[in-house]
Amino acid sequence: MAESSKPWKKILYERQEYPDNYLDEEQFRKDLKNNLFVEIQTINEVIQSPVVLYLLQEMNSVFLFLSVFWQLEESTSVSLSPLVLISVCCFLSCLLLLSAITMNIISSSDSFECIKQSVLFILFLSGTSPILRTLTESISTDSLWCMTIISFLAHLAFHKYGIDGVLVSEAFSLNAAIFAVVCLVSRLPSSLHAFSLILFAVILFALLPQLRNHCNSGMSYLFFQALTLFLFLLVITLLSTHFDYGPLFVFIFCHFVLVVSLVAFVKLQFLRNTIHGPWDEAAIDLNDL
Predict the structure, then answer these.
(1) Distance of CA 81 to CAs 46, 117, 121, Å?
(2) Given a cut of 70, is residue 96 above it in pLDDT?
(3) How far is the C-alpha of 49 from the C-alpha of 214, rounded, in Å?
(4) Section 131-155 average pLDDT
(5) Where are the extended beta strands (E) located within 137-230?
(6) CA–CA–CA angle 283, 285, 289 (5° rounding)
(7) pLDDT the model gives residue 193
(8) DSSP 3-state helix, strand, coil percentages of the chain (rounded to 5)?
(9) Where are the beta strands (DSSP E) in the chain?
(10) Residues of 62-98 as b/e, b for ≥16 C-beta within 10 angstroms?
(11) Which residues on neighbouring strands pair with residue 276, listed in sequence order?
């Protein structure tokens, strides 16, 4: 195409000597912007954020579940351990419901419906526990533990720690945790043990994270620190009854994952390269209206 005497304008209401799909290269580079909404955080800012506590809490939740599993695995079918665990789960459910009503997460008018659905879920779970306990009974123990470890690692990798991200998927994270639970219940001595463990896992991996996310803005940072310390001490106490080096392993694993995650986040955020330009969808800011 021959050089035009008139400069190109980005308008549609005037006929120009350029094709409709023409775009001036200089104008394109002028409108191109890199890393427009990227906020670079230092290591101190990341450490002081609640995300670190959420990560520690979720790792402690996984170890807490494994500790309870080992407790139930060693108990007999006539032991009171499952019944005690059921009572604790019911108490936690009532506590979660009470906290939800107090913080207006759900209204008081919906509390009866929530209780009814909880009762139906418990009845359904008690009826399906014998089936769930036999799903993986024919699989070898080594294969089950391999699948359990992979599932829990996927749960931790895709879990929502208070912020959104590309890898964040609450549904996938929850499904991975439930799959790990189903893999292990076949090694319990009775269906009552399986029912207790699954109910405890639902509260631990489904209800508690939701309540924690809702309480993010209403609770202080000191509260989450105390909760993290409580979970860690509880895990240490339960593991010390089964493994001599269990508490040391939990301490090393949690801090190793935490340090690697923090260093990787701080280093890799400088490699982000997002481009923005006229092709982006228009975002309407209601505050400007």
Answers:
(1) 41, 26, 22
(2) no
(3) 16
(4) 91
(5) none
(6) 130
(7) 84
(8) 65, 0, 30
(9) 33-34, 275-276
(10) bbbbbbbbbbbeebeeebebbeebbeebeebbeebbe
(11) 33
Question: In which element (H, E) is residue 83 found?
Answer: helix 81-102
Please provide the size of the chain in residues: 289
pLDDT at 84: 62
pLDDT of residue 152: 94
Summarised one tens digit per residue, pLDDT across range 200-243 is 888 888 888 877 776 665 566 777 788 888 888 988 988 888 78
Helical segments of the chain, H only: 25-31, 43-47, 50-74, 81-102, 111-133, 141-158, 170-185, 191-202, 208-214, 221-240, 246-268
pTM more than 0.70: yes
Query: What integer is the mean pLDDT of 157-184?
Result: 86
Tell me which amino acid residue 28 is: F
Token digits of residue 178: 């439930």
Structure-block tokens of residue 67: 């500790």
Tokens representing residue 194 in the block: 């399986």
SS (H, E, C) 221-249: HHHHHHHHHHHHHHHHHHHHCCCCCHHHH
Q: Please state, rounded to an integer, the average pLDDT across all residues of the chain.
A: 78
Nearest C-alpha neighbor of 168 from the set 152, 180, 156, 181: 156
